[in-house]
């Protein structure tokens, strides 16, 4: 069965334990503005085939101690018409000019500025239950209340109107 959700405004959620999600098919996300991710521990990713990243202007990675790029067959750094290629045959440097220890300086990247998410407001204890999150067991009860309300609305729309007692006999 399909499930659709549209939120007209902000959506804030907090899980005070673990959160797990398994998607049997594809997963697609789109963010209209910036997307921020803060992980207090380690971010682990395991990709079956490839990681393909494209940025319109810049990719900047910083490591506090070590940055290891490892490939089974080849690593290539390419900019403009120049490149450095490392493969089983050796190291290939190609460019209009190759300068070793002749000045220059590295470029500076933008750096990261991840923002932490806002937390949802706490539900007040005196608020009616309708404004608080329902549990899985509440689902059938809530659905039956919705169905009863829909039937009442339908009956009200299909029943013929009768004139009030004081209007009878008047034309």
**Mean pLDDT rating:** 83
Kindly, what is the distance between the CA atoms of the first and last residues, rounded to a whole number of angstroms? 55 Å
Structural class: little secondary structure
Strand order of the largest sheet: 1-2-3
Protein model, in words:
The protein has 1 helix and 3 strands, in the order E-E-E-H. The protein is largely without helices or strands and 171 residues long. Among the domains are: 63-96, no CATH class; 127-158. Mean pLDDT is 83; it is low at 167-171.
Short structural summary:
With 171 residues, the chain is low in regular secondary structure. It has 1 helix and 3 strands, in the order E-E-E-H. It has a 3-stranded antiparallel sheet, with no helix packed on it.
Give the topology.
Elements: E1 75-79, E2 82-87, E3 90-94, H1 138-158
Antiparallel strand pairs: 1-2, 2-3
Label this structure with key terms.
Type VI secretion system secreted protein VgrG; 171 residues; 1 helix; disordered C terminus; single chain; little secondary structure; elongated
């Amino acid at each position: 069965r399909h499930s659709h959700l549209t939120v007209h405004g902000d959506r804030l959620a907090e899980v005070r334990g673990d959160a797990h999600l398994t998607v049997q098919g594809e997963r697609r996300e789109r963010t209209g503005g910036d997307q921020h991710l803060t992980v207090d521990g380690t971010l682990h990713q395991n990709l079956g085939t490839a990681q393909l990243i494209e940025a319109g202007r810049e990719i900047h990675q910083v490591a506090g101690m070590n940055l290891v790029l490892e490939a089974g067959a080849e690593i290539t750094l390419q900019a403009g018409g120049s490149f450095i290629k490392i493969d089983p045959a050796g190291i290939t440097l190609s460019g209009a000019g190759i300068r070793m220890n002749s000045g220059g300086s590295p470029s500076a990247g933008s750096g990261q500025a991840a923002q932490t998410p806002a937390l949802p407001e706490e539900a007040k204890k005196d608020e009616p239950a309708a404004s608080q999150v329902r549990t899985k067991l509440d689902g059938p009860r809530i659905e039956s209340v919705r169905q009863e309300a829909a039937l009442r609305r339908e009956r009200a729309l299909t029943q013929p109107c009768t004139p009030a007692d004081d209007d009878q006999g008047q034309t």
